[in-house]
Design goal:
Blueprint lengths: L21 E3 L5 E3 H8 L11 E2 L30 H11 L8
Length: 102
């Protein structure tokens, strides 16, 4: 099941489960749209993949046992594992390669 991480790994902005500005990569690295667009240029600093909008888990169980109440969002905050300089180098080397070709 998709882990709904509570914050942007770059700027630490809160990203609650219903955040429309949350973005994830294939490994569920989580960032806010502003960091993805303005700093990372759609390059995950951890895997070099691209980002998509994070799905919003339903707050109401319209099917028995399936909702945010039954599968709550994560609470462990994450931070970048790489320094800003190495991230900038990765982004610059990768940003013009379409995610499907990386």
């Amino acid at each position: 099941m998709l882990e709904l991480r509570p914050n942007c790994e770059m700027c630490d902005t809160d990203l609650p489960p219903d955040a429309e500005n949350a973005r994830i990569c294939t490994y569920e690295c989580t960032f806010c749209a502003a960091c993805v667009d303005d700093v990372l240029h759609n390059v995950c600093p951890n895997c070099a993949g691209g980002f998509v909008p994070r799905p919003i888990r339903p707050a109401t169980a319209r099917r028995a046992g399936v909702s945010l109440t039954h599968q709550p969002a994560g609470t462990k905050r994450r931070a970048l594992k790489h320094d800003r300089e190495s991230i900038a180098e990765l982004v610059e080397a990768t940003r013009n390669i379409p995610p499907a070709d990386r």
